[in-house]
Amino acid sequence: MLELMLCSLFTLVPDYLYRRYVQGKRFGKEITFYSVWYELRWGITGCLMLTVALITTIFYFHPSTTSAALFYRTIPILPEGSGRVAEVNIGFSAPVKKGEVIFRLDNSKQTAALDTAKRKVAEVDASLLAAEADVVKAEAQVQEAKSAHQQAEDELNVKSELQRRNPGIVPQRDIEKLQVLVNQRQAGIDAATAVKQSATLRVSTLLPAEKASAEAALAQAQVDLDKTVIRAGVDGRVEQFFLRAGDVVNPLMRPAGILIPDKAGQTSLQAGFGQIEAQVLKEGMVAEATCVSKPWVIIPMVITSVQDYIASGQFRGGEQLIEAQNIARPGTILVFLEPLYKGGLDGVTAGSSCIVNAYTSNHEVISAKDTGGGQAFVLHAIDAVGLVHALLLRIQALLLPIKTLVLSGH
């Protein structure tokens, strides 16, 4: 209606003035209800054509959408494993801080596993002390074997020297027995040395490895026990938390509740524009928004990101071919907007529906030296008609409470 009234000022009104004051025709005489089309045909035709052109120009270069909302992220409250709830620390709705305990699962199994792991570590520590004593014992046995070997070897040397000086004074059989004894004592040294090496290896390598394994099992048991305590991952607020002691939760089938992070839905607004406006929407475009939860307020905004993909065109690989006609309706170009001024979204409820206008600006092109006069005039006209859309948004903002509270029938 606003566009039609504006266009009539340039087409229908001049035609009527010409008929009235130049041709002398008057309403009720030459211009009647039945002759309006014939007498004002040029003005009516021009008005309709200009209105269509103006509406097309406005909605293409200054796109508008009612598919806008302050989407916000929610975090499901889930344990890492299934279990029965033993304790709930918050109510139906409550603020939480990062790291605060929300609820606990029954941990009897995890506590038993932790105690077993602790005892295993203590057992390895005791074995390590015993192994160190075995090393000392093995060292003493080596020293004993060396002493016995040295004694047998000294006796063999003495009798061999006597036999060399006075042949026949020492029976050859005795010398052979001493030689066998020396070899036996040497074997005893080797055996004791091997026992010592085995004990040393057990102390330095085997038992430390067993202790590390036991400590790893202890750490794993502690982790499993900690998983029974579900804490808040971020600062936020828990809403609609119906979980109670005795309930069974499952990370795949039954979440415990929803955690909404602080400042969720207060940083950016997401709007879906028609696909035909994909070439117009650019980062840095100035926009305006009005939201249902904060009526009669126009929020200046700026486009910070334009999504390059349309959600309706996505698919997952499967066993069936894609049929394009199954797409129920064309998708939209998702645009992210942020307030132009700090605190612009204060007072707007997260998730609120909004109306968004974006405005094309050709100032840089118009200011360029190589821009011709005709092109500059057209670009000026395109930028100027954005005022009509801005006025329409303000009218929508004024009528929004009336439309919502009175005309909607709620």
From TrEMBL:
Coiled-coil blocks: 114-162
Record-linked InterPro entries: MFP_Efflux_Pump (IPR050393)
Keyword Coiled coil attached: yes
Keywords: Coiled coil
Gene3D superfamilies with a match to the protein in the record: 2.40.50.100, Helix hairpin bin (1.10.287.470)
Keyword Coiled coil: yes
Protein known as: HlyD family secretion protein
Organism, scientific name: Bradyrhizobium uaiense
